[in-house]
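Our preliminary data section would be incomplete without showing what the modeling component actually yields. Below, a chain of 152 amino acids is followed by its predicted structure, encoded as tokens that our downstream tools consume directly.
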Amino acid sequence: LVLVIIGGRWMLPRGTITRDQLSALLLEYVGIAVDILELFGSFEKDEMSTNHTVTVIILSVYSWSLLQFTFSSTALNEEKEEADEEEEKKQIEDELVYSLGILAGIFMQDGPFLAVRLYLIFSLGIADEKELFFAGKNIVTIALLLYRLFAI
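Predicted structure:
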């Protein structure tokens, strides 16, 4: 399903974004897809296959994270010209959309995934290398997204 979403986005008309921006967006989608699909690896563990609560939590977070693919990420133009009022208004709108995209990444992807992974590690004692790596990845990603949010 995730690959169909990514392929569909690739085949759709590009609109106003460049090929470079489209390829960056698709690479971001692939990274998100890897994180989403890795969460399903938790079902392969014996402790997880019979735990109904964890199954519901993981499927809920998975469903929630898939919604982020419905939002279209936009690329900001980095022009350094003098802006009149209309251009300044457009720049503020672009920054708002960009900020909302960052917040969607935090609250629809890395935040919930980190919460699930921390629950698996600390409550259920599933602290294998993969869970620790992806929990660390989610922490670093959230920190970088917050940095980007405050940098705009």
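Residues 85-123 form the longest helix (39 residues). Residues 74-80 have pLDDT under 50 and may be disordered. Preliminary results of this kind motivate Aim 1 of the renewal.
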